Amino acid sequence: MKFGKTKTETFEGDLTPMIDLTFQLIAFFMLLLNFSEVDRAEEIMLPSSILAVPPEERPAYQIILNLEPSGAVKFQGQKIDQIDSLRPIFVQEINNAAREGVINPADIAVIIRSHRDTPTGLVQKLIMKCQGEKLESFSLRVKEKIN
Amino acid sequence: MRLAPIEHKDIKVDLTAMIDIVFQLLTFFIMTFNASSMEGDFTIRMPLATTNAEQMDIVLPDLITVELRAGNNGNISSIVADGNETYIEGDMFQRLTDYVETQLAGVGDPESAKKTEVEFDIDFGLKYSYTVTAIEAVSGRVQPDGSIKKLIEKIKFKDNSK
Fold this sequence. Notes:
Largest interface: A-B, 52 and 50 residues
Distance between the termini of chain A: 80 Å
Order of helices and strands of chain B: HEHEEEHHEHEEE
Radius of gyration of chain B: 31 Å
Number of helices of chain B: 5
Helix content of chain A: 25-40%
Number of helices of chain A: 3
Structural class of chain A: alpha/beta
Distance between the termini of chain B: 102 Å
Oligomer: heterodimer
Structural class of chain B: alpha/beta
Shape of chain A: elongated
Strand order of the largest sheet of chain B: 4-3-2-5-8
Largest sheet of chain B: 5 strands, mixed
Largest sheet of chain A: 6 strands, mixed
Order of helices and strands of chain A: HEEEEHEHE
Shape of chain B: elongated
């Protein structure tokens, strides 16, 4: 018996909607990518509060200090074991702020991200250390608790 | 002159390579995506002690002192407000809020919340989470309808770092 030749056709689906959607997903994730993560040490578990107010605007110049329960401070990814060793960093940051137009150290916002189990005395010690460099404006950063 | 008809051919672009790289990008962004929760601030203003004659003329705000005492393992053991109101057990922070609210209401001045300052005297070893809860307790309270009633805005710490 002789069979007729089977005609093979290549089927090409329209990929346009899938490519559109994929590009939209990439755009979404790119926009959400947070480049300021270097300032935030994710291992710091912040205390939470209902009343804490998210900052309305970014201060002219800010220093974010991540304080661990051991007393070590993380600043821009760099770990400093002792609060007493922070002076060179403060001096450098005050100079950087001056170059950006923030002349008075009292106008520099110091944001303290302290772990919830840190002894409060260490937080106070950090504040006093900042005060020694004429920094006066402090914010205690906490996780926002939804009511 | 007679032109020969142009023959239109479908040009097929191979999209495989582009789709491959797009999916790799997508995978990268999904894997590195970190949904972090919102953060807020409690602002404290701690100016340096001054001997400047001009600044000495500034009228000092009314002061409420709050002592937070630490017990075992850095947990809170008691709260003392203005040296005479002591809260040892139960909902200490709620009672602190009640005390501050009563003090502000007693003055009879609607602007009293802005003029009054709270100074915290905190034991060195007290866990920071209790300090934040105490700051929250004097800063305001959540009303039954979900709105927030603001109390004290000026907060400072007594130096117990040594």
